[in-house]
Amino acid sequence: MSGADVSHRNDVGGLFRAHYTWLCARLRRYLGTSPSVEDIAAETFVQLLESPGLTPIREPRALLTTIAQRLIYQLWRRRDLERQHFEQLLPVDPIGGPSPEDQAQFSQTLKHLNRTLDRLPGKVRATFLLSRVDGLTYPQIAAELGISQRSVSVYMTRSQALCALHSANEPLNRTSLNRTPQTRRSA
């Protein structure tokens, strides 16, 4: 570990001690009493720690706020996607809707898939999400990310291989998710 790395770690540690409580209070304005507040605050400092520490930070609170807001937007987007996928995969039961067990199982599957996708490098993950979630074509993705169409193809192959591995390790219980109200067994 170089001296610059130690210095950067010490700087981020000082920022953490000086601003963590303030950042949590600021995040509570956006998220209320959500348990995500401390997670996002901690992840903000982790991202700061992982970034290269080449220049001194003149406005630490502005930087921390910007990083935290990006994390909040990611959280909100993830929740919106989870809700959309949940609504698409589970049939509407006019009597009572999906059972709490089905909801919990599906939610856990989506969280596991999200952790799986988080293992992908940024552009590979972005390529996958732009294709599968936003429905963009390969040329549109290439233009959006500033990469070649060949890279888009390679990134999609890589992300699909990881998703296939995810499916093999965590099979989605499709029988419970695709039940129609007529085939649902009463408990």
UniProtKB/TrEMBL annotation:
GO biological process: DNA-templated transcription initiation
Keyword terms, alphabetized: Sigma factor, Transcription, Transcription regulation
Domain RNA polymerase sigma-70 region: 15-80
All residue ranges annotated as the RNA polymerase sigma factor 70 region 4 type domain in the record: 114-159
InterPro entries the UniProt entry points to: RNA_pol_sigma-70-like, RNA_pol_sigma-70_dom, RNA_pol_sigma70_r2, RNA_pol_sigma70_r4_t2, RNA_pol_sigma_r2, RNA_pol_sigma_r3/r4-like, WH-like_DNA-bd_sf
Keyword Transcription among record annotations: yes
One MF annotation (Gene Ontology) recorded for this entry: sigma factor activity
Record-stated family: Belongs to the sigma-70 factor family. ECF subfamily.
This protein's name: RNA polymerase subunit sigma
Lineage: Bacteria, Pseudomonadati, Pseudomonadota, Gammaproteobacteria, Pseudomonadales
